[in-house]
Amino acid sequence: MADSGDPLDIQAVISQLGAVDENYLHARGIGAAVLELERLSNATAACLAFAHDVHEREGAWADVGATTAARWVASRTNTSAREVQARIRDGVSLRLLPTAAGPARRGDLSADHLRSLSRCVGRHALRAVEDEELLVGQALELSAPSFRITTRRWCENADDLVNPPAEDAEPAPKSSFHLSESMDGMFDIGGRLSPEYGALLDAILGAHVDRYLRTGHDDPSVAGKLMSELQADALMELCGQTMRRCGCEGSVPDRYRVAVTISLDHRDRGNHGQAGDDEREHGADPPMATCDSTMYRAVLGADGEILDIGRDSRKWSKGIRRAITLRDGQCVFPGCDRPPDWCDVHHCQPWEDGGHTKLGNGALLCLKHHTFLHAKKWTIRFDGCRPQVHRPDGTPFVITRWQAEGPGPEPIADP
Predict the structure, then answer these.
(1) Which residues are registered as beta bridge partners of 388?
(2) Are 395 and 405 in contact (CB under 8 A)?
(3) Ramachandran category for residue 335: left, alpha or beta (phi over 0 → left; psi -120 to 50 → alpha)
(4) CA neighbor of 110 nearest in space, from 31, 177, 52, 37
(5) CA–CA distance, 178 with 200 (Å, rounded to integer)
């Protein structure tokens, strides 16, 4: 129902929106049209939250055999039940915080602002009602990411007020972490870590930076970087491990898989004393290690190059990755010793430029050097069956004197 008491023809509104064309938007001024549509989207989200709250409380959905209002709506709109339930909570928050209802109806509060207010109400409803003016005022002044951080801190303070620590007990240090996007597109990191968390992270990052320096004598991806940049690289490399699933992973760890390599000169094995006639005819028993293993095939040429491992596909298959891992052993960038499970498979000739997803077009690169190659336009070409890193001018990059145990370059101090 509209505020005037007249029924709102929602279908007519939808039809009008569907009839809006590009010429109309240009006539309105595209900037002004975008702002108006965003405010309309915010107002619609608030109206939808109010409607969901009323629908939940009336309980008409139970008369048709539904277990919850969220599931009733989800089954008829293809919206996830979790999202519908979140909108119901938004409606409850707007009902308990009437100061927020007006700005929400006008489109001054985004759906993200409503969701943050809902967390406060869900965590401490009575205290949220007491601090209603403060919370709504902050929501109108702050961006959605900043307001999310503010409400998170409000919830932490409310937890302490509701359940204060014992007088004789020392307050336990709390860890917090905040990530927000700045105006220039970069992301700002903030927060505090407990002594245990802080010491652990410092030790892990320190070990990775030390490894960068020890192995980075002639590494162009390390040279000239600030200590803070090296720590950022180390943090991203660690985070990347949680997102990367090694291509050889499956239901069992890869150490229980056995690679059976077949050389092309197997017909002459008898002349080299590798197998007798009877053994070639009947086949020798596999070793005990293969009893509970998943075996895969890798056909090797006379020079050790892998000739056959599986089919081509746009995505690196497990078989191709196993073959590349068997060939490269680690990151192929000179001087880098990152193991295969720290590496991505790099298309040496980019897929969008006609490159194939096959053994002869893939090479292992750790996150740091993979990023460096794309950013600096370095390339990888094959010298025979081995990948070789080349500079942008086409010259091969080779480290002639490199020792992992020697002293590395000194980092540049942060200004």
Answers:
(1) 381
(2) no
(3) left
(4) 37
(5) 19
Q: Identity (one letter) of the amino acid at 45? A: A
Is residue 318 exposed (0-12), middle (13-18) or buried (19+ Cβ within 10 Å)? middle
| Those residues with Cβ within 8 angstroms of residue 62's Cβ, 6 or more apart along the chain or in another chain | none
> Residue 168 carries which DSSP code?
T
Is the torsion defined by CA of 195, 200, 205, 211 positive or negative? positive
Helix (H/G/I), strand (E/B), else coil: 332: coil
Q: In tens digits, what is the pLDDT along the chain, a chain of 415 residues?
A: 445 455 567 777 677 777 667 776 666 677 777 888 888 889 889 999 989 999 888 888 787 777 888 888 888 888 888 888 999 999 999 999 999 999 999 899 999 999 999 999 998 999 999 999 999 999 999 888 889 888 988 988 888 787 766 666 566 667 888 888 777 888 888 888 877 788 888 888 888 788 777 765 667 877 777 888 888 888 888 877 766 654 444 433 444 455 555 554 544 444 444 444 444 444 444 454 444 444 555 555 555 555 444 445 667 777 788 888 888 988 999 888 888 888 888 988 888 888 888 888 889 998 888 888 988 889 999 887 789 999 999 899 887 654 444 555 555 554 4
Distances, alpha carbon 235 to alpha carbons 223, 238, 340, 368, in Å: 18, 5, 18, 11
What is the bridge-based pairing of β-strands 386-390 and 257-263? unpaired
CA nearest 337: which of 349, 329, 345? 329
Q: DSSP string of 302-327? A: TTS-EEE-----SSPPHHHHHHHHHH
Question: What gap in Å lies between CA 105 and CA 52, rounded to an integer?
Answer: 15
Which single residue is written with the structure tokens 């940049």?
A: 229
Helix, strand, or coil here: 187? strand
Q: What is the DSSP string of 344-404?
A: EEEESS-GGGT--SSGGGEEEEEHHHHHHHHHHT-EEEEETTEEEEE-TTS-B---SS--T
> Model pTM?
0.43
Please check whether residue 335 is in contact with residue 401, taking contact to mean a CB–CB distance below 8 angstroms.
no
Is residue 188 a contact partner of residue 182, using CB atoms and an 8 Å limit? yes
Nearest-angstrom CA–CA distance, 27 and 96: 41
How many residues appear in the chain? 415
